[in-house]
């Protein structure tokens, strides 16, 4: 079994309002960062896992996203898997 | 002014406990994903901004992280900036 690291982003769908992102945008305008046009806030998950190969590792990470980490009604996810030395 | 997209990860320091990550790990074990060894949960922020060049865009995103998005006592951040077409 090899060790892999999955880097997962779970973001609110583009079509949905993101109140947390809007709050950050307001906060940034107060910091003289009014050139920031849009902010969306989601989750980043760093997952370390054991698997026989990269394909297995990716399908485990995908299953974790689909069944636990992302709510498909409101969120979409993307993931990247790399082998650890 | 060009448009840039900053992809920012804000993660709890490695030395700190991450109760949310531990909760995910427990949940994954119940989904027959017990080969997941460790999980850390942080924030992912996608920020669209206007700037004259990539260096300015990166320093704006860095300022946003340092002054608003990340709490340096508990979190570290990493960021990547790319130009939008």
Descriptive account of the structure:
The structure is a homodimer of 85-residue chains. Chain A is α+β, with helices and mostly antiparallel strands and 85 residues long. Chain A has a single domain, classed as Mth169, Chain: A, CATH 3.30.1280. Chain A contains two helices and three strands, in the order E-H-E-H-E. The first copy, chain A, has helices at residues 19-30, 54-69; strands at residues 2-12, 36-51, 75-83. In chain A, strands 2-1-3 form a three-stranded antiparallel sheet. The longest helix of chain A has 16 residues, at 54-69. Chain A is elongated. The mean pLDDT of chain A is 96. At the A-B interface, strand 1, helix 1, strand 2 and helix 2 of A face strand 1, helix 1, strand 2 and helix 2 of B. Strand 2 (36-51) of chain A pairs antiparallel with strand 2 (36-51) of chain B, so a sheet runs across the interface.
Report a brief summary of the structure.
Two copies of one chain form a homodimer. Chain A is 33% helix and 42% strand. Chain A is of the alpha+beta class and 85 residues long.
How much of the sequence lies in strands of chain A comes to 35-45%
- Low-pLDDT runs of 5+ residues of chain A are none
How many strands appear in the DSSP assignment of chain A? 3
* CATH fold category name of chain A: Mth169, Chain: A
Kindly give the count of domains of chain A.
1
Quaternary state of the chains: homodimer
Per CATH, the architecture of chain A is: 2-Layer Sandwich
Q: What is the CATH level 1 assignment of chain A?
A: Alpha Beta
Helix percentage range of chain A: 25-40%
- N- to C-terminal distance of chain A: 12 Å
| Broad shape of chain A | elongated
Main sheet attributes: strand count, strand direction, barrel closure of chain A:
3 strands, antiparallel
Average pLDDT taken over every residue of chain A: 96
**Could you tell me the radius of gyration of chain A in angstroms?**
16 Å
Helices of chain A, by number, come to 2
Largest interface: A-B, 34 and 34 residues
């Amino acid at each position: 079994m090899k060790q892999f690291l999955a880097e997962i982003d779970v973001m609110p769908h583009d079509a949905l309002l993101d109140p947390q992102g809007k709050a950050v945008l307001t906060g940034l305008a107060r910091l003289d960062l009014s050139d920031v046009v849009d902010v969306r806030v989601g989750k980043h998950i760093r997952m370390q896992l054991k698997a026989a190969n990269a394909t297995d590792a990716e399908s485990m990470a995908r299953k974790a996203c689909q069944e636990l980490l992302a709510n498909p009604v409101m969120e979409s996810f993307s993931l990247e898997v790399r082998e650890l030395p």
